[in-house]
Every structure is written in structure tokens, then in C-alpha cells.
Amino acid sequence: MKLPLRFLAPALAFAVLVGFFIAGLKRDPGEIPSPLIDKPVPAFSLESLGDPAWRVGSADLAGRPWLLNVWATWCAGCRQEHDALMSIAREGRVPIMGLNWRDDRTLALRWLAQLGNPYVSVAFDPEGRVAIDWGVYGAPETFLIDATGRVVKKHIGPINLDVWQREFLPLLPAGEGGP
Amino acid sequence: MIPELGHFALIVALLLSIAQAVFGLGGAARANGAWLAAARSAVVGQFVFVALAFAALSWAFVERDFSVLYVATNSHSELPLFYRIAAVWGAHEGSLLLWALCLAGWTLAVTAASSSLEGPFRGRVIGILALISIGFQLFMLATSNPFERLVPAAVEGRDLNPLLQDFALAVHPPILYLGYVGFAVAFAFAYATLLEGRLDAAWARWTRPWTLAAWLFLTVGIALGSWWAYYELGWGGWWFWDPVENASFMPWLAGTALIHSLAVTEKRGLFKSWTLLLAVTAFSLSLLGTFLVRSGILISVHAFATDPARGAFILAFLSAVIGGALLLYAWRAPRLKSSAAFEMTSRESFLLANNALLVAALCLVLLGTLYPLFMDALELGKVTVGPPWFNLMFLVPMLPLAALLGVGMHAAWKRGLLGTMKARLWIAAVAALAGAILIGAAAYADLRPMTTLGFALALWVMLSSLLIPVARIRARQTLPAATLGMVVAHFGFGLATFGITGVQSFKIEKDFALGIGDTASLGGYDFRLTALRDVQGPNFAGVEADIVVSRDAERVTVLRPQKRAYNSGGNPMTEAGIEVGPARDLFAALGDDLGQGRWSVRLQYKPLIRYIWLGAIFIALGGAIAAFDRRYRFRAQAQATEGTAVAAP
User: Fold this and answer.
1) Hey, is B467 helix, strand or coil?
2) Distance (Å, rounded) from C-alpha B474 to C-alpha B487?
3) CA dihedral sign, ordered B447, B442, B237, B285
4) Is residue A12 in a domain?
5) CATH code (residue A139)
6) Contact (CB<8Å) A7/B382
7) pLDDT digit string, tens, across residues A36-72
8) Domain span at residue A121?
9) Among residues B591, B610, B607, which one has the least CA distance to residue B599?
10) What are phi and psi for residue B116, nearest 5 degrees?
11) Are B5 and B56 in contact (CB under 8 A)?
12) Does residue A116 belong to the interface with chain B, where contact is any CB pair within 8 Å?
């Protein structure tokens, strides 16, 4: 049977649209390439969240891969990713340093006491100065830094175990304790 | 226990939807009356069980059952009862349940009101609606179960997004969804018609009130969303062209075109395949809107949790429903012949122009909304199209639309004779232009061409709408509800155009840093910050400012904007202080605390902004009046036709 083209046109236009949607679904609209990728980490040294006398800095974990997780108690996505961070911490492949961003010390400490603490140390950045150096524009964000002190991966938005296994683990050297 | 019952009710509803589809479509194909009756029973059952599931989720919210993940994520023990109920549809899973409930409700209404339709056609309509129900219920059960338990239960909920703790936004989703989902009825009618391969005037007469009903809910829903954005987001804008807004605006444009095209199909038997295509398009855009919003394909991860599995499911469902309908259309539509001649200036021509312009507007919005997606997929970079693009482009189809509308309303079917109306329309046109110049010169001392054109078109549409009842009353003719509805809706369109022109031309927005005792001047008004005090709400604490507004040293009002911090955390919220008036709104919103008792304050002068929403109310009211036209009461109509059949020529 002959199909006149003008009646088929809506279906064809829709097929093209679906093609774009499939392509779009595979992409993350929040994925904005960080200029920091493959660059040395922006150095910092800040007060520790738990103890103002103690300094926490970017050099603390040098020589091995580590994660920097930017979080705050006012951020809903941070609550959402917290359980995933706890599992990553338990897994023990990489230590996680927290960067508590534009937050209140008491609230932040209460948060960690209630929900558990996945961090080896937490830097306290109430004015967001370090976050600016790192190009943070929202929380949560998570950076992976390799053993040579270069940023190799930036994830914007809540992390989950799926993202962790698909996007982060392949970037880690096959090391001890890994699957 | 009750959440499990809700989950179970949802599963039963899915099974009943499947039965409804099988018996409806199968019964129609085999002309089996018993099957068709079974399909109708399944409709009732499906509605009851979806309603039970909805009630179970509402119960979990009212009782603050934080062992349910969805409740723990979207409620809080301090949340007032009204918002605990509104929180049911405050996020993804509950919105879907509301969607399913609306669909079940519309299906029930159609089934109950369609006893005069031919059995097989009715069965197909019910069956097609069931296919949509199956998709949504399966989606919920597979990827977005609202009844999922949280083990161990949370001690405290994470709270409903404070942005949503507001009356307009609490009632906005149900009304909007009634509109979105209501287009499913026109869609099912079109689909059933394509399956049967024939279309008559009765079909169009039948589809019209359902389309009008869905469209008027959508109108109210969109207006509520716009009103909410105006006073709650703190920016004082009334439309932002963001993807979520566009997702609701596109089906509205398609629905508006459909209403007009249905008129031609009913009265003249023309545009048949075009009308069917619009009916498919309106609902497709509703589904597309749901997909765009729910898959997060256009929205940054920071705005909404995204889940690729959900996106993939909706896309597959979307492709099946829309793709299936469009392929069926390509196959069957060529058979629908509509041949009748009409003249250049006949009403048919004007309605054709109306459809072309509305669809052009729709394509522009679609293009602008999906542009970032196209560019990203083609690796041309991440870009967005901003409001300035939309504002400019949207005028291109809208200006001729408004201009033609004033004439088209008065054109006769088939022949292009405007008769005695011609002289009156000339008077209306001249009066509109004179009025626009007068308003611009006297009230604003400004006669920019675009502003004057906007006011003139607004007055033109309003005046030419009013000519219809005036002429009818003079001639002692009756005014049928459908005509009255058209007049009211078009008058509303004129009012909204009036408001849009005013606010876009003469609004003033400025940020100031104010301490106590400081004064800022804007639009001829003086705003003086006189006090700052702490306020305590049921679940928030905040700061409230007193801003005394005066004009020529005469006190006008006191604005009381608030900055709120909700106890559950999250970003601080802005409650604007607004003085409403027929000529202008005065608007104050608190920005940041600058320290030392100084605050950044955003002050705005918004002339005529109320007419935008007033216009929307008129538009929806017009739809409601038209939907109640006697002609659409099918049973009354059928009897009347029997009675007068002999007398009819």
C-alpha cells in the first residue's frame, strides 16, 4: 500500500526526535568538563571541621589516590549520596576527604554524628574560598585525585554506587583489596 | 501494613487495566457485547484500586509514617496537615500516582458519559485509555514505587521542598495533571477513529467538550504556576520559558489549535485528518512533557534527581504510544476525505490561519526547549536558549494571530461575507488604536511602536469580542453557550495581551542595599525600610522587614517581605511582599543579609501584571461556558435529532 509522504511526515519527525532523546539520555546534562582534569590539585590548608586547631590540607593524602567530596548540611543531594559515601568508605579502596562548604560547624558535626562519618578528615570552608579554587558551583561534587596529585575525575551531583563502579573504579589502579 | 495494601492495590489496578485493554479492544474487534461490558466494569475497578493506592499513600503522609521511603524523603513531623497532603504529589513517585489517578478518573467519566456511543467505538476508546494506564502503572511498579519501605525507618523526615510549601503550588499539580491527562480522552477518540477508519461530525461534537475540559484545567494550572513563580521565587517574573513551563505550555498550544480545528471539523466536515493529528499531538506533548521533566534529560542534576532507567522506560513507552498513533495515522488518515470549498475570507480560512500560527508558535517553543539537547547530541557544545530568544520569536506568530482573531470571529462559514459587521470592525480597529495611543501617552508618556501595537491589539481583540454579544442582543437573538464561551475566552486573551504589553514595556526592577531608615525610589514611589523583626512559623524561622511605601509623601502601603529558613534545612526561602493594584503591583523581596543591619532588597514596579492572570481566568471561564453548550449533551441531542429529523431539510 502506498503511503503518501505528507501523512508519514509526523511519524518521521517523531522518529528523529526519539533519536535525539536516546542520544540525550546517554548524556548527563550536568556533566561539565572541569578545567582541572589532568591538572595538579589546587592546594589548600583549612581548619578541620572537628577541631579548629587542627589543619586539613590537600597535601595530607598525597602519594595515593583519594577523593574530595564537597558537601553541606543544607544540600539535599548530599543527604541522598551519604549512604553511598559510607559504603565507599567501608570498601576502603580510597580515603575520602570532605570539604564542608558554606556551612555551620555545629550543624555539620551533628550531621556526621547522626548519619555516620565517611571522611578521614573534613576541611571547613565556611566562606567557600577553597571551593572557588576547585571550581565548585554546587554541592555535592566529588573529585578523584590520583597518586601523583592530579585531578582525574569530577562528578557533579549526588554520587551513587552505580556511578562509583562505572565511572570511578576503572580509573583506580588495580590494587590490593579490590575485586 | 497500609502502605503494603496501597502497593497491592496498585498491582490489582494494573491487572484490571490489562483486563480493560483486552476486553475493550478485543470486545470491539469481535463485536462481543459481554466483553465490552467486562471492559466497562474493569474501568470502575481500576479507578477504585488506583484511588485506594492514592488513599494509602495519603494516609502514610497524614500519619507521618517515616518507614515509607517516599514519605521520609518528602515530609517532616512539623509539616502542617495541608502540606502533608500536598506532599503526596510533591515529588516523582507521588506525582505519577496522581497522574494515574487523574487518568483513571477521566476514563471513568468518559465511560459513564458515553452510553450513547456505538459499543465497539466505546470499547476501543476504553481499551486505548487502558493501554496508557498500563504504561504508567507498570512504570510506577517497576521503577518508581511510592510505597517502598525504608529499613530502618527514619526518625525524622527530610521535609517537603520548602518551595512547594505554598497554597498555589499545592493545588497546581492536580489541576495541571487533570489538563495533561484530559487530552488522553481526545487522543483515545482519535486513535479509535483511526482504527475504524471513518470520521463524522458526531465524532467532532463528541470530542469537543472533553477537549475543552482538559484545556481549561491546563489553562488554570499554567496560570497558577505562573502566579506562584511570581510571588514565591522572589524574582518577580511571571514566565521564565524554562523547560518545565514549556512542557505544560506546548500541550496548551496544541490543545488551543485542536479546539479551533474541531469547530471546523464539526461544522463543515473539513480538516479531518489535521484535527486527528492535533488530537494525537496534544496528548503526545503531554507525555513528552512528563518525559522531559521526569527523565531529567534537560534539567541539571542539581535541580532534580535523575535516573537513566526511568528515562529509558518513559522513552520506550512514549515511542510505543506516540509512534504507534502516528504510524496508524500515516496508514489511515489518507482515507479520510474532506472536500468542500471555502472562500478566502470565510471562517474556515481564518481558523486555518489560527491553526498554522498556533502550530508555528508550538514549533518555536519546542525548538527552543530542545535546542540544548540537539546541540549537545551533535557535539556542538552545551548551550541554552534564553528568555530573550523566546520573547522575541514568540511575537512573530502571536501578533498576526491577535490581529486576525478580531476579524475571524465575525467571518461566516463557507462564504466570506462580513456583511454589516465590516463597518463595526473598522470602528473597533480605529477605537483600539486611539485607545492604545491614549493609554501610552496619558498613563506612561511613552509611545514606543511595539508597546502601542501591543495595547492596540489587546484592545482590538477585546472590542471585537464584545461586538458579538452586542450585535446579538440588538438583533434580539439568543447567545448559545458555545458562542458566549468563545467571546469570554477571546476577551480574556485580549486582557492577557494587555497585561503582558504593560508589564513587559514598563516594569522597573532594581536591587538596593538598605539599612533601617534608608529610602529607595522606584517608579515614582519611595520605599523606606523601617523595621526588621524575627518571625516564627510552624516549621520555619525567619526575618520580616517592614517597607513603608509612599508616593508624594503620602503613605501607600507597607510591604512585608520575609526570608525564611526552614527547620529541616535547605536553602533559605523568599516570601515577597506585594501590594496588589489594578494599575500596578509593588513588589519587595529580601535578598541577602549584608551584615551591620543592612539587607539587599529587590524592589519592583509591575504595571498591569494582574491582567495576565485575570485574562487566564477569563480564558478558562470561556472554556467552561463553552463545554456546557447544549449541543454537546449527547443524549439530549440524539433525542432532539429524532424529534426534528422530519422537519430538518
Assistant:
1) helix
2) 16
3) negative
4) no
5) 3.40.30.10
6) no
7) 778 888 889 899 998 888 888 888 888 889 999 999 8
8) 30-171
9) B591
10) -85, -5
11) yes
12) no
Q: For an interface test with B, which of A2, A17, A106, A142 has the most B Cβ atoms less than 10 Å from its Cβ?
A: A17
Partner-chain contact A7 B330, CB within 8 Å? yes
Which of A20, A73, A157 lies nearest to residue B377, judging by beta carbons? A20
Among the partner-chain residues A14, A26, A74, the one whose CB lies closest to the CB of B322 is: A14
- The CB-side HSE value for B531 (13 A sphere, CA atoms) comes to 9
Contact at CB, A1 and B300, closer than 8 angstroms: no
B1 in reach of chain A (CB within 8 A): no
Separation CA B105–CA B561 (nearest Å): 40
Residue B27 to residue B21: CA distance in whole angstroms? 9
Query: B557-562: which pairs have CB atoms within 8 A and are 24 or more residues apart?
Result: B557/B586, B559/B527, B559/B586, B559/B587, B559/B588, B561/B588, B561/B589, B561/B590, B561/B601, B562/B535, B562/B590
CA–CA gap between residue B79 and residue B155 (Å, rounded): 14
Report CB contact under 8 Å: B370, A7.
no
DSSP state of A38: T
3-state helix, strand and coil shares in percent for chain A, rounded to the nearest 5 = 35, 20, 45
Q: Do A29 and B298 touch (CB under 8 A)?
A: yes
Q: Confirm or reject contact between B291 and chain A (CB < 8 A).
A: yes
Q: Which residue of B has its CA nearest to A7?
A: B330
DSSP characters for A90-145?
Answer: HHTSS-EEEEEES--HHHHHHHHHHH----SEEEEETT-HHHHHTT--SS-EEEEE
Q: Cell numbers of B348, please?
A: 474556515
* In a domain? residue A51: yes
Q: Give chain A positions within 8 Å (CB) of B382.
A: 29, 32
Question: Which residues of chain B, if any, have pLDDT below 50?
Answer: 300-305, 635-649
Binary contact (B382, A32; C-beta < 8 A)? yes
How far is A161 from B70, CA to CA, in rounded Å? 20
Q: Does A16 touch chain B (CB under 8 A)?
A: no
Which cell numbers in the block locate residue B188? Answer: 483515545
Is A88 a domain residue?
yes
- pLDDT exceeding 70 applies to what percent of chain A? 89
User: What ipTM goes with this model?
Assistant: 0.86
User: Is pLDDT larger for residue A25 or for residue A168?
Assistant: A168
Confidence (pLDDT) at B151 = 81
Residue B330 sits at the chain A interface (C-beta within 8 Å)? yes
Residue A3, pLDDT score: 53
A179 DSSP assignment: -
Which residues from chain B sit within 8 angstroms of residue A11, using beta carbons?
323, 326-327, 329-330
SS3 A66: strand
Q: Which residues of A4-38 are buried (b: 16+ CB within 10 A; e: fewer)?
A: eeebbebbeebeebbebbebbbeebbbeeebebee
Quote the number of domains for chain A: 1
CA distance B601 to chain A (A): 22
pLDDT at B214: 96
In this prediction, residue B166 carries a pLDDT of 84
Is A113 an interface residue toward B (CB < 8 Å)?
A: no
- With b for 16 or more beta-carbon neighbours within 10 A and e for fewer, the B555-566 pattern comes to ebbbbbbbbbbb
Using pLDDT thresholds of 50, 70 and 90, give the confidence band for residue A176.
very low
How far does Cα B40 stand from its chain's mean position? 29
Task: Report yes or no: A66 and A94 within 8 Å, Cβ to Cβ.
Answer: yes
Q: Nearest by CB to B297, which of A11, A21, A107?
A: A21
pLDDT at B637: 45
Closest partner CB to B300 (pick from A1, A10, A29): A29
CA distance B598 to B532: 10
A39, part of any domain: yes
Instruction: Tell me how far apart the alpha carbons of residues A50 and B244 are, in angstroms, rounded to a whole number.
Output: 41
Distance CA B111, CA B128 (A): 12
